[in-house]
Amino acid sequence: MNRDNSFFEFDAENTISSTSKKPRWLVLSVEDNDTFQQSLVNALSRMIVQGHTMEVLTASSAKEARLILEKRPDINLILLDVVMESDDAGLRLVDYIRSTLNNPIIRIILLTGQPGVAPNRDVMEQYDIDDYWSKTDLGEEHLFNVMNGNLKTWRRMNELKSARQGLERVVTASQAISRQNDLPHFSQTVLEEIDRIIGITDGGIMSLKMTESLDLEKGSAVLAATGQYQPYVGQSITILENEILLKRIKKTIQQKQHMFVGRYSLLYFSFKQPNPVYYLIVVKSATALTESDIHLLKVFGENIYNGFANIALTEYLNELAFKHWQTGIYNRNWFCQQLVADEYWVEQAQIVLISIDRFSDITVTFGEKFAIQLLKTVHDELSQVEGIQAIAIISRDAFAILLDKSHVLSASRFDEILGKKNQIQRREHKIIAKAVSAQLDPSLNRSPERLLGQMESHLYRLRAVSSSHFHHVSLDNEAMFSKHLEMLNDFNIGLTKNEIHAYLQPKVDMVSRRLIGFEALARWFKSDGEMVPPDIFIPIAEASGLVEQLDKAILLQCCAAIKQLQAAGISVPISFNVSCHELLLSDFSSTILSLLEAEAISPHQVDMEITETLAMIDYEQVSATLRKLIALGMDVSIDNFGTGFSSLSHVTELAATTLKIDKSFVQYLGERESSEHVVDMIIRVATRFGLKVIAEGVETTLQRDKLIELGCTLGQGYFYARPMPIDEAVVWALKHQ
């Protein structure tokens, strides 16, 4: 590093006395060269930028800098040595600032003592670095210009941040009064602000709203008022016994602009969208306003105009943020807000989650319009529950309701409400649903999302393992949270101890009974012999970020199984499942291909399975990744096809070779006509777009025969074999070769 400390010698124009009390910028210098550090501190301490002096903090390492940043979040700018205790210490500190501290506005300038060596553009963009200079280039004028430019930028960004925070507070305040009339509340606040700005010690202020006609006799109302005008709130302005003021109001409306006459100031605002509406604020002061007061009112008038516009915008955004867009029913965001209210917890209200059975099947079979009407019908029926305080759609097929403590929803009442048949689009339909209820208690954790997550977990288990329609559950947060952490720890240990095994389930040609491949399914057997179901540990893996390790472990076992099968003379592909997170990684395909190459496995020897829901997540990016793998010979299957109604509208966009019919449709073949229609439709879709189709969950001769009759000849399920260890799968394959 260059140790010349003569870079920073400033003339008197840019220096001040050390005793000056001017406002200060806060700068952090991170530098392990003491000589350069001191030289830089001396230079900055004499510098004035935009009327501010510099307060300089110093650190000799990235570690020391972290401690300072944690204590001083008000730092404006960092001068950072690139190389310190390690080659990448500087970049890791930048990442810590941007990601962990979540500070996007602090200006970061990298310095190096090696002229000509600079990070490439990708590094600058990736780490959000603002500037980069060689220490030898930072002469007197140059350092000043660098500091001046970056601190100007910081100031603009900070102003934007402050403005954004102010808007967030306005939105939050608007949400808090969503049950009130927002416009009068806002108007009252405006009047109080005007009073604060110009000091109305006598007289008063009022806010008027007029309709499109601009006729005071027909369409004017006092929204809010102070002082002598308070009695007129909610009434027509025409009842004022002040002809002079009424004439001035009419003149202001005719001229369509502000008017300042003597003790009266009239501020005019008009809006054309979405419906024409006009507002007038009348200020009566004790004395005529000064030019300065008028100027302040005009400036504040711009804010008032924006405020009125924001009221309309806030109401519109609330409609989007707090309403289910297809039905207009309140949504999960709104319901979470209701859960924050103390009254429900103190009064120990009852919360109930209701899930409509087989909603995806209903949507596919009868159409989206039918499904939307079904949701509205369920909402109308649930709204009849005695003591209901709030109701909302919290997911695609589930509702949540809050009941006051004096009304408890019982299982019999639940069945009575939703058990009867309803007419939906001229079709008689019986709603089948399951529900879980719980009692809110002041001692419980009050995080709305965590509470709903707990309830949804209970509801999911009820749907999976119980025939009962209604369960009351306990919300013991800590016990559940501890159990989850214990399971997560066990799973992490299980991965390191190779407790997770790939079990293979055969895929067969149902006509010839010929083996066409296997699907690898993860199975977890703890060291004590306990078997943990996949529907428990896979969500834990996904939520904790361990799913990549899980999928890699299964894929490696797939590669070993392929080699073992080949040694026995059996050459069939094995499919493996991929998580959402992995598929959206930019290096996903190269990672998979590198692993296969290292294991000497060709892409055509493995198939990839992704869920239909995953395929719909940014399907353009997903498809680009999958097409690359398909081009190399790998088959891609869309698993659980038909369970998400969006798939049919996007099927032409999907990069896939195979559709897998979900077992929920297969299990009722021969029993329900609707299942047969869905399966037939999926087969037709696959045929239309040149895709193979495989049925999952084939368990009976009737199901097999129905599938073959409909044109699906490939399948897997207990009718042929359960998932089995690799050694058993090889034996099975030899028997059924």
Automatic annotation (TrEMBL):
The keyword Phosphoprotein applies. It holds the Pfam family EAL. Residues 484-737 form the EAL domain. The modification 4-aspartylphosphate is found at D81. Residues 26-150 form the Response regulatory domain. Keywords: Phosphoprotein. This is EAL domain protein. It comes from Methylophaga aminisulfidivorans MP. Transmembrane segments: none annotated. Gene3D superfamilies: 3.30.70.270, 3.40.50.2300, EAL domain. It comes from the Bacteria. GO terms for molecular function: cyclic-guanylate-specific phosphodiesterase activity. The keyword Kinase does not apply. One of its GO terms (biological process) is phosphorelay signal transduction system.
